[in-house]
Amino acid sequence: MNIFQTAEKKSNVLPEKYRNMTVTDLEERVRFIKNKLGSKLFIPGHHYQKDEVIQFADATGDSLKLAQLSEENSEADHIVFCGVHFMAETADILTTSKQKVYLPDMRAGCSMADMADIFQTERAWEKLGEMFGETMIPLTYVNSTAAIKSFVGQNGGATVTSSNAEKMVQWAFAQKERILFLPDQHLGRNTAFNLGVGLDEMAVWNPMTDELEFDGPIEKVKVILWKGHCSVHENFTVGNIEDVRRNYPDMKIIVHPECTREVVALSDMAGSTNYIIEAIMNSEKGSSWAIGTEMNLVNRIIQQHPDKHIISLNPHMCPCLTMNRIDLPHLAWCLDTIERGEEQNLIEVEEVVATFAKLALDRMLVQS
Questions:
Q1: What pLDDT, in 10s, does the model give residues 82-100?
Q2: 10 pLDDT exceeds 60?
Q3: Cα(179)–Cα(96) distance, rounded to whole angstroms?
Q4: Which of the ends of the chain has fewer CB neighbours closer than 10 A, N or C?
Q5: Full domain range(s) for residue 189
Q6: Is cis: bond before 249, omega within 30 of 0?
Q7: Within this chain, do residues 147 and 177 fall inside the same structural domain, yes or no?
């Protein structure tokens, strides 16, 4: 079930009264319920969330860090995940059955995660098995559905993050001769390239045509990249880099590895969200940066470092549309329903899916 089917099933539509409330009233309502529930409530907020939501987060970070913090927080009965659907699923997988995980807006999803559904993946695995036999192991970026994580766990694979992708790819190659990397082709390509795998040793699996896109002899293939991408990071281009080099010759360019290989190759630095945050934080006063990642985070970094010249690598970039589904009205509404004892906007991963998904996550965490 994808996020849109889930939203339709739940039929959770924001009541009109929350749209008509003032910002002050909404903020007061959120603060009141946070104070009332105290340690029984935990609000993790992803780096890409709006400031109006982040201001109420008990912790900020990337998706896996927030899921792990949710797991460690044994006091919280209610975890209101300000992120997207796959993140809340991971939190539900890692937390206890007594804890409830909520997503303030069930439409908050990830286009990349939705580019690999379980039916496509199972079909691809069967067809690729006919080509490569038992020489493959699957890896999936944590930006994937619980069903995909479960599939990977069931087939001996593990999850990866943008921070530990190189370590996990090395681990995978110690297990098998070939890797199927889901669902982001760019992270997979950039990671494998950094580890010495040639671009001519990487094939792309197209789930829309059920075909392997590769020109050479298939026995040369070491990495099979799922044809998926982040709609935000793919919008950073070589032209953007050329503009920065021309207009700001002394500016450093730092990008996320979900960007294309061409963009990463031409940048000065590439790394995870935390890598980007720490690089800017530890840089010298007066330094200049062009950042290639989501705009909410870029704008927040600009505000936090007024002593530095920071711009978005793409000046026409918009925030991630699905990330921006969660806003102050939805957060206030979600907390109100919790206070009233209503089980609405719940994220619940089926036990059998959660079991194998946790296995994939645990294989990664053991290596970290």
A1: 988 888 999 999 999 999 9
A2: no
A3: 32
A4: C
A5: 113-230
A6: no
A7: yes
